[in-house]
Amino acid sequence: MGSQEPGNTRLRSARQALGLRSQQQLADAIIHAGSGIGLRISINARTVRRWESDTPPWPHLDHQAAIEALFGRPITELGFTPPWAADEPQSRQRREHNGVSPMVIAGAAAGPRPMFPRRFLGEPLPGSIAADYIAITSAYRHMYWSVPPAPLRESVAAHVALGVGLVPAVPEAARRSLAAAVSESSLLVGRIEFFDLQNAVQAQGSFVAALQAAQDAQDSLLGAAVLAHMAFIPAFSGDHKRAQEARDKIRAARTFARRAPVSPEMVAWLDAVEAETETRFGDTHKALALIHHAEDVIANEQPRPSPAWLDWFTPVRLAGFKGNTLLAARHFPQARETLQEVLDQLPEDATKQRSVTLGDLAAVAVGEKNPDEACRLAEMALDQLAHNWYATGMDRVRAVRELLSQWESLPCVRGLDERLYDWNTTINALAR
């Protein structure tokens, strides 16, 4: 007879978010994760089936360590309840009664677990807490462009954990706006983890948490933004077998965006995300068509305000996407002209984007057989990275250095190596 209960939806959702379609695939992934931390464990699909049941058993210690290594979050945030917590007064039913789903409680995976007294969630808080939390979220949004990524990530992750605890404690009228701020904050954590620190596993967990909080906020545009960011993970993986995974996330993002009034900038950004995805999977013709559509949308669609959090995208940033795609398509003169215009128009504080643009311009110079110019531009990118570290920018510089291998003996290439492998750059890259 079939059960009417949904089972352990937290673990199942986390598994599916990693692209693991079957319970056996999860078992294999946990074994591999355990091996990576020195554990020799044995798990099969039957074990996973029990874990995804309505009453999942508490896993053995080695299994716990492997599961946490795979998902990057505590075991208790994946639907498992420790045997000693049977008398916990803050039950799942009470959390649901307070107006927040268990999925948002699981969303604390984006950062440290909230360490509140047990009475915290049981005591009502004033609705003004939501406004205060939103103000801090806005401040972190602005800090992203200048504060070093590692310490900022820790602070914003703690902010997420705080918000997860606050949502059920504020009046019902304030919960949706507070949950939206929690979602935005978790999205920011994921952006830092992915673009700045190159930790795709952590970023995946933060994006899932952001999506769960967006659900509680009933904010489909935030949901679209999170899903589009999730498409970057398979797109940047270098694995062409994951192309369908990336495209599925983009389709989902577009579907979510259609559920609410959407600004031309948001539509254009989704085009740009899809264009970058197609570029990385080799279809530059489709990517350029998407970018042309995005340009047309921004130029001709009726203006509509964008969400405050959409601060990572402007027409200049769209031109940056275009320049990178033209580079990949080997249209070097057009790429150089486009990227130089981007460089000229970027605001002074856009150091992260400037490092990426300089790296792309350096790659164009390599394509045009101009190693001296390539080295000059790559060193300028390193100047930006010394001021504000950005792993994505460093990737561009390293890619240029690989392209310069045929000119190893030139003084300019040796000079670039001196900069690329000096003490500060080397230690900064390894530390991050």
| Structure summary, number of beta strands | 0
- Radius of gyration, whole Å: 23 Å
Using the alpha-carbon principal axes, give the shape. globular
Average pLDDT figure = 87
Strand content: under 5%
User: Could you state the order of secondary-structure elements as H and E?
Assistant: HHHHHHHHHHHHHHHHHHHHH
Number of domains in the coordinates? 4
Please state the structural category: mainly alpha
How far is the N terminus from the C terminus?
A: 52 Å
The biggest beta sheet reads: none
Helix content: 55-70%
User: Helix segment count?
Assistant: 21
| Poorly predicted sequence stretches spanning 5 or more consecutive residues | 1-5, 85-121
